[in-house]
Amino acid sequence: MNALALLRPRPGLRVLITGAGSGIGAGIAEAFLQAEANVYVCDVDGAALDTLKKKNPALHTGVADVGKREDVDRIVADAGARLGGIDVLVNNAGIAGPTGGVETIDPQDWEQTVTTNLHSQFNFVRGVVPLMKQTSDCPAIIAMSSVAGRLGYAYRTPYAATKWAIVGLVKSLAIELGPSNVRVNAILPGVVQGERMDRVIAARAESLGISFDEMREQYLQKISLRRMVTVEDIAAMTLFLASPAGRNVSGQAISVDGNVEYL
Q1: What is the largest CA-CA distance in the chain?
Q2: Of 25, 101, 207, 208, which sits 20 to 30 A from 175 (CA to CA)?
Q3: How many CB atoms lie within 10 A of CB 117?
């Protein structure tokens, strides 16, 4: 098989994507559908899932709060049954968490961020790995971290802490699951253009007492390429990691960020 052929994920790949009602998750789901995969997505926002399914009728969907273990167990069981197994898990669900100095952060906001961003990834992996070992000949786990998982991020400590933890989880799982042929990698998106990033910029601008435009320009000046990345950039890397071309890539934290130099 030539290198170009290796870049395409196998048709019929069975893919579960969390937090995929909109944004990066939805973009990844649509990319896998275009690659002829069978795709199941979950999200806490049922209306967003309905909208996505109307646009992509082939999708399987389920409403879930990924911070609740019982919801995770239900989704894993439903996805496994509907897809006939799971080959790829894209652990994408996450929240921005609070913005502010550490002394101002409500402990409940900290706990919610850790539960949604980190505990959910553990719970999905815990449920999916037995299915992968039983039914898949090309299993892959792809965890969504962040550029904040390799750089310090003042005023966003809960978010950054979870994203660093995800990288540690991935590198440990890659060693543990490698003998079972399960590949585990993390994608670290940078500043992704879209409504969610606009909200993050606005919140940080408010905390620092500057305008939205000033804050946005500060973000761009920290990126070597001086531009934001797109959802399509993230989806393309996800497809690569799920394709035969990525068959020997495991335990990696791969930045897709235009080279963010600092936060």
Answers
A1: 57
A2: 25
A3: 28
Mean pLDDT on 161-176: 98
Among residues 40, 153, 155, 159, which one is catalytic? 159
Q: How far apart are CA 34 and CA 232, in angstroms?
A: 12
Q: What is the mean pLDDT of residues 242-262?
A: 97
User: Roughly what angle, to the nearest 10 degrees, separates helices 120-135 and 157-177?
Assistant: 20
* pTM listed for this prediction: 0.94
Enumerate domains of the chain plus CATH numbers.
3-190+231-256 (3.40.50.720), 193-228 (no CATH)
Cα–Cα dist 254/188, whole Å: 6
- The Cα–Cα gap between 211 and 215 comes to 6
Q: Tell me the pLDDT band of 1, cut-offs 50, 70 and 90.
A: low
- Is 155 a residue of the active site? no
Instruction: Give the sign of the dihedral formed by CA 236, CA 238, CA 242, CA 246.
Output: positive
Task: For residues 61 and 4, give the distance between their C-alpha atoms in angstroms, rounded to a whole number.
Answer: 32
Length of the chain: 263
User: How remote is the C-alpha of 40 from its chain's centroid?
Assistant: 14
11's tokens: 């048709």
